[in-house]
Design a protein that fits this description.
The complex is a heterodimer.
Chain A: E1 3-6, E2 12-13, H1 20-28, E3 34-39, H2 42-56, E4 63-64, H3 69-74, H4 77-91, E5 95-100, H5 102-107, H6 111-121, E6 129-133, H7 142-157, E7 168-173, H8 179-191, E8 195-198, H9 202-205, H10 224-228, E9 235-239, H11 244-254, E10 258-261, H12 267-281, H13 287-307, E11 311-315, H14 318-330, E12 334-340, E13 354-357, H15 360-366, E14 372-375, H16 380-386, E15 390-392, H17 410-453
Parallel strand pairs in A: 1-13, 3-4, 3-5, 5-6, 7-8, 7-9, 9-10, 11-12, 11-14, 12-13, 14-15
Chain B: H1 2-12, H2 18-21, H3 25-29, H4 46-54, E1 61-65, H5 68-72, E2 92-93, H6 98-103, H7 106-120, E3 125-129, H8 131-135, H9 140-151, E4 155-158, H10 167-181, E5 195-199, H11 212-218, E6 221-226, H12 232-236, E7 243-246, H13 249-263, E8 267-269, H14 275-291, H15 297-324, E9 328-332, H16 336-347, E10 351-356, H17 362-372, E11 378-379, H18 384-392, E12 398-401, H19 406-411, E13 416-418, H20 429-444, H21 448-452
Parallel strand pairs in B: 1-2, 1-3, 3-4, 5-6, 5-7, 7-8, 9-10, 9-12, 10-11, 12-13
The chains are: A alpha/beta, B alpha/beta.
Chain lengths: 460, 468
């Protein structure tokens, strides 16, 4: 159990947090033929764009209403209208996901109202879904924006259905799941005979593939018709506490009940998932997963030596923290420092004394004696200063390849994580041994030198 | 806001700007703001531009006053190098909350400045205004002035909230902040007749290290670099230089012109990219220094250095000619690089399919024509879709551009090399030219291209193999 604290400092140093605006934008990037549109100054979009391009190593469709000082004073109705029309004419998207920024919210823009007027004025837009989400960047954090955007998608697009299809399920992944995680989850559900519709689905759009032709919108992801049809599902799997609100919204709208998994990393967590899928499908667990479970158990047996008693410092968004920190504890490591970005009900239950809502400087000041640092790529400077290994996790990962395919859920993902983190810890231990050996040698040399100096009286 | 509007107007009417020189008085009054098109805009805001221009000052704390988006989404994403201090790589922001939006963020800002000074003790703090804090009326100039007095430390307001305009305008506002608050506020310990200021070089990938030894060899001292690998004190002393060189012509020209009128420091525009431009820059610098009182032998020593370097580089470049001669380059960049890189690539036998001139001044364009003739293939605007088509149709062997179009090229399975700010390689100076050519060779002749362009076997009509 942890105490959740927030320091009363005025300056954030080396931010861990990113804005909820771009968290919402990323959710829209998981819809097929979509163009996310940030209602703000063009920099709001440019920063998000560069961030996602560096992380995913993909072209990222992301537009801006390009608010200026004058239009901010006058109100942004014209800019929103022009932006939507320009996007419609140039890119022909199926969905335009509009996310507000601090600028728009401070001005008090009534974007919902704008959209009603724009709809009335432009019948040609009838076939384009326009989904608005309010995401001021002076509130919440990245995962909150994602959660709110998915809630809004469901509210706007999902339709109640008169019937249920027993094989059909919905998956609502949190922002901390990679395309690789989503693929793993979908394949697992399919192995039990389910037809899983993932909303939003980054594994379709940002999994790193080469389209046959130029595409100005997202290419792949959850289709509009699939979202509309999610009321026919027999149940919804939501992953991460942040997905409770979207799952609730979906239930309200369509009556589809949900199961929420706070995490899917770790043996017990993966067992929960497999057990549920088996129960709900009425099918026995396929041999493939029995084998994978056995492999994970073996990995834990082989790997626990590397983890036992090790001190780990983690900085991550609440749901990623809640996936990874308990797992480290289950491997025998100690969570010596935990920092996160925003409030969440999961924080108090984490296996550490204190969870700090803070920044990477807070982690750095608490991680000096830790064996392993875990955070996104911005932890690299801290890792260099502290001389400690950094397990890169979360978004952005701009200095390593394959972030989109790193999988840490289920038996297979957890097994690979045991290896990855275990290897880093082992390397660290070897290095320490080596340097202790050096110190020992130096000490011996110093002793023999002072002996040779023959001053006699002193003994080291 | 009115002070800021006046500043913006002044910057837009900048007489040193090549674009403005080509305009009528009336057009000039109308300003040069490219109106941003909602839903079809690209590129950063004024805050982004200001931050890019000043962040390379390595020993100061850069504090962003605004919501988390402005710093949290963007910090640590450029590779400007430092030969010493690293504080510039630490991200500082007030990360304002909804409560600050209601009550105002000035108190938080003042406290944040205090926390930084107490914990990091930097020679100065630069405070960046953003849209939200500008909208709620936070007066950063007043807070900075108060903080300067209270903490006896320069605290410099950089008033370039994103919504005032483009990245380029932000570059200019950043330069204006240096003019208003930094340059001329201190005196150097000593001066020499060969002191210069470099303006508009950002030491990307630490590339100035390839230029500095050349200047050292000539006895030319860089009194201040504005801003690549810059130090606060040096920039504060910049007004004692004899000559200034403007490297990125659009961003910092007004700083050079201001230093000319205020302190009588003549300036010239040059480039460190490409062999002949590098040599020309050294020549101009020496000539101007001699005019300003440097020993006349400097000119002859410069010529000797140039001769030696050009001969040395010629030998180093030679092996690449065979690999690169006739390869076709599509060059999508702006300003100085649109001509300096053109010259450089032609020097080694590459063919320029087209060069973009969207961000180039009329003078930049003249230079391109000077190099390539009047029918130089200049493209004003190349939307991603057209660029993709061009590459997909095989009309170029490599795209040289910034990160924005990286995936246009890669998805078309065409080699690409970054020549803008985010690049990891140092291309300045004579040796930088060799590095550029080497990187182009490694990229364009990489064995992956043949493999990735292969059809999948099931897509190709191949004979069915029989097992043996």
């Amino acid at each position: 159990m942890a105490i959740v604290t927030r320091l009363s400092k005025a300056c954030t140093v080396n931010p861990l947090k990113m804005s909820q605006t771009i968290g919402a934008a990323l959710a829209f990037l998981g819809l097929d033929r979509c163009m996310p549109l940030l209602h703000g100054a063009q920099g709001c979009t440019a920063f998000g764009l560069v961030l996602f391009v560096r992380h995913f190593r993909e072209a990222i469709p992301l537009q801006t209403t390009a608010m200026s000082e004058v239009t901010t004073i006058m109100g942004g109705m014209d800019n929103v209208e022009q932006a939507i029309l320009n996007i419609y004419n140039r890119a022909h998207p199926a969905v335009i996901g509009i996310c507000s920024t601090g600028l728009a919210e401070t001005q008090g823009e009534d974007v919902e109202g704008f959209l009603r007027i724009i709809r009335a004025r432009h019948p040609e837009l009838a076939a384009v879904a326009l989904v608005f989400v309010s995401t001021p960047d002076y509130e919440g954090a990245f995962q909150d924006g994602w959660s709110q955007a998915v809630t809004r998608m469901v509210e706007e697009l999902a339709e109640p259905a008169g019937h249920r299809q027993p094989q059909r399920i919905n998956i609502l992944p949190g922002s901390h799941l990679t395309p690789g995680d989503i693929e793993e989850l979908r394949e697992t559900a399919e192995a039990f005979g389910f037809d899983a519709q993932v909303i939003p689905d980054l594994s379709g759009s940002l999994d790193g593939h080469v389209p046959e032709d130029f595409c100005p919108t997202t290419h792949g992801g959850a289709s509009l018709s699939a979202i509309r049809g999610c009321g026919t599902a027999t149940f919804t799997l939501a992953v991460g506490e942040q997905m409770r609100a979207p799952a609730e919204a979906l239930k309200r709208k369509t009556g589809v009940p949900y199961h929420l998994f706070p995490r899917l990393t770790g043996l017990a967590a993966a067992d929960d998932l497999i057990e549920l899928l088996s129960e709900r499908s009425g099918r026995p667990v396929p041999a493939k997963y029995r084998r994978q479970r056995s492999q994970l158990v073996d990995a834990m047996l082989d790997g626990h030596f590397a983890f036992a008693g090790k001190q780990v410092a983690i900085a991550a968004e609440p749901d990623l923290l809640a996936a990874v920190a308990p797992w480290f504890a289950e491997m025998g490591a100690k969570i010596a420092a935990a920092v996160t970005t925003t409030e969440s009900p999961v924080l108090a239950a984490l296996p550490t004394d204190e969870v700090l809502i803070g920044d990477l400087a807070d982690l750095e000041s608490r991680a000096g004696r830790c064996d392993l640092l875990v955070t996104h790529a911005h932890g690299r400077q801290m890792a260099a200063r502290l001389g400690r290994p950094l397990l890169r996790m979360g978004l952005p990962l701009f200095d390593r390849l394959g972030g989109a395919h790193r999988t840490i859920i289920g038996y297979r993902g957890t097994r690979d994580l045991v290896f990855e983190a275990g290897n880093m810890l082992s390397a660290q231990t070897e290095e320490q041994h080596a340097s202790r050996g050096d110190e020992h040698r130096k000490l011996q040399e110093a002793v023999s030198f002072s002996d040779a100096a023959g001053s006699g009286g002193q003994c080291l | 806001m009115s002070v800021l509007s006046t500043k913006v107007q002044g910057l837009l009417a900048e007489p040193g700007c090549g674009r403005n020189q080509a305009k009528s008085a009336r057009e000039r009054r109308a300003g040069c703001q490219n109106l941003l098109k909602p839903g079809a805009a690209a590129g950063g805001c004024a805050f982004d531009g200001a931050k890019i221009a000043l962040q390379p000052i390595t020993d100061v704390a850069h504090l962003v006053h605004g919501p988390i988006a402005c710093e949290g989404n963007s910090w640590d994403n450029r590779h400007t190098g430092s030969s010493g201090p690293l504080l510039y790589r630490t991200g500082f922001t007030t990360d304002i909350t909804a409560l600050d939006v209601i009550q105002g963020g000035e108190k938080r800002l003042l406290r944040a400045i205090r926390e930084i000074i107490e914990s990091y003790d930097p020679p100065a703090v630069f405070v960046y205004q953003t849209c939200v804090t500008a909208m709620i009326g936070d007066d950063i100039e007043a807070v900075c002035q108060r903080a300067s007095e209270q903490f006896a430390r320069p605290v410099v307001p950089v008033n370039a909230p994103g919504f005032v305009g483009s990245k380029n305008l932000g570059n200019k506002l950043a330069g204006q902040a240096l003019i208003d608050h930094v340059i001329g506020t201190r005196e150097p310990a000593h001066t020499t007749p060969c002191d210069v200021v470099i303006l508009g070089d950002y030491n990307v990938a630490g590339e100035f290290a390839r230029v500095r030894p050349l200047l050292d060899a000539l006895g030319i001292r860089v009194l201040a670099s504005i801003t690549g690998d810059g130090r606060y004190h040096d920039i504060a002393c910049a007004h004692r230089a004899r000559v200034s060189m403007v490297v990125c012509s659009k961003a910092m020209i007004h700083v050079a012109r201001n230093m000319e009128t205020r302190y009588g420091i003549p300036f010239f525009e040059g480039s460190f990219y490409g062999v002949s431009d590098m040599s020309d820059s050294l020549r101009q610098m020496s000539r101007l220094l001699v005019e300003r009182g440097a020993p006349e032998t400097l000119v002859a020593r410069t010529e000797a250095l140039i001769a030696r370097e050009e001969a040395r580089i010629g030998v180093r470049l030679e092996p690449y000619r065979a690999h690169l001669a006739g390869k076709r380059v599509l060059l999508v960049t702006g300003g100085v690089k649109s001509w300096s890189v053109v010259a450089a690539l032609r020097e080694i036998g590459m063919e320029i399919v087209a060069t973009s001139v969207k961000k180039s001044t009329p003078e930049d364009k003249q230079r391109i024509q000077g190099i390539m003739g009047s029918d130089a293939p200049m493209i004003d605007d190349l939307p991603p879709r057209d660029m993709y088509r061009m590459l997909k149709e095989g009309r170029a062997d490599i795209l040289l551009s910034g990160g924005r179009s990286q995936f246009v090229a890669l998805k078309a399975k065409v080699p690409w090399l970054d020549i803008n700010q985010e690049r990891h390689h140092a291309y300045a100076g004579y040796d930088g030219m060799v590095e550029l050519v080497r990187q182009i060779h490694l990229t364009v002749n990489n064995p992956i291209w043949q493999q990735v362009r292969r059809c999948a076997p099931w897509d190709a009509a191949a004979p069915v193999r029989k097992a043996v």
